[in-house]
Amino acid sequence: MNEELEQLMKNLKLKRMLEIYDEQLRPAEKDNVSYTEFLLRLLRPEWHSRQQNALQARIKRARIPELWSLETFPYSKQPNVRRRQIRSFAELDFIPRAENIVFIGDTGVGKTGLACGILLKALENGYRGQFIRAQDLFDEMYASLADRSSRRLLNRLVKLDVLLIDELGYVNVKPEQANIFFKLMEERYRRHPTILTSNLSYDEWPNFLGNPQMAKALLGRLRHFCHTVTIEGHDLREQKG
User: What is the DSSP secondary structure assignment for residue 210, as one 8-state letter?
Assistant: First the structure.
């Protein structure tokens, strides 16, 4: 390879193109392909490589605990889950419509797996998202009060295309945390969708948040444009045993 060309590729960070240049050059010369076709043979792999790297970066930033797949969810073991409805979520129309998704059910029924599968679909299609457990979220909210970084925390979470809050209801919420959580949901309302998993039915939220009026206002926003999936079934982890 010409030294100047090699240096230019390095400077432009065309890593994949640099890797395949020699192996593409020989067959191109043999087949007497046009300059345009040769350039396409270099650019296509470069583009695919960048897309894959960008996806891996989005997945890393999203902090998904496991890469659950909607295609491998054991629907036969959880007949209460409607495959057609989950497939409709996977089409991601709920994102531009800013429609929330709430999974409600006991521990182990598959709420987190389905929610993460939907989030992964969003990441694969170029959306920015994050998984966070409710306990960690409320801990961050409480810590942000000490250093007055609550506004910065909210700004980061509000701008996400998809926010997944897992296991809401397993934590004790202080009034200050409930206030920040309400602010988060209020600012995401009609802008970006939030996916929630919870062991609590909606009528238990006032007690969970400790403020019936706030809970009523929050649920009004959350459920205004929302898909609620209630899963009544067995613990899938017990069935594996």
Answer: T
Task: Look over the chain and give the mean of its residue pLDDT values, rounded to a whole number.
Answer: 93
Q: Are 78 and 113 in contact (CB under 8 A)?
A: no
CA distance 229 to 202: 12
> What's the whole-model pTM score?
0.86
Asked if 114 contacts 81 with a C-beta cutoff of 8 angstroms, the reply is yes
> Could you tell me the sign of the dihedral formed by the alpha carbons of 113, 152, 60, 45, in that order?
positive
pLDDT digits (tens, 9 = 90+) for 176-227: 999 999 999 999 999 999 999 999 999 999 998 988 999 999 999 999 999 9
Contact 102/231 with Cβ under 8 angstroms?
no
Beta bridge partners of 36: none
Cross-strand partners of 100: 226
What is the C-alpha separation between 142 and 174, in angstroms, rounded? Answer: 8
Token pair listed for 61: 């930033």
Per-residue pLDDT of 113-147, as tens digits, reads 999 999 999 999 999 999 999 999 999 999 999 99
Q: Where are the alpha helices (DSSP H) in 32-161?
A: 35-62, 83-90, 111-124, 134-146, 150-158
**Are 192 and 224 a contacting pair, CB within 8 Å?**
no
Phi, psi of 229 (to 5 degrees): -115, 110
With CA atoms as reference, report the closest residue to 228 among 97, 82, 67, 125: 82
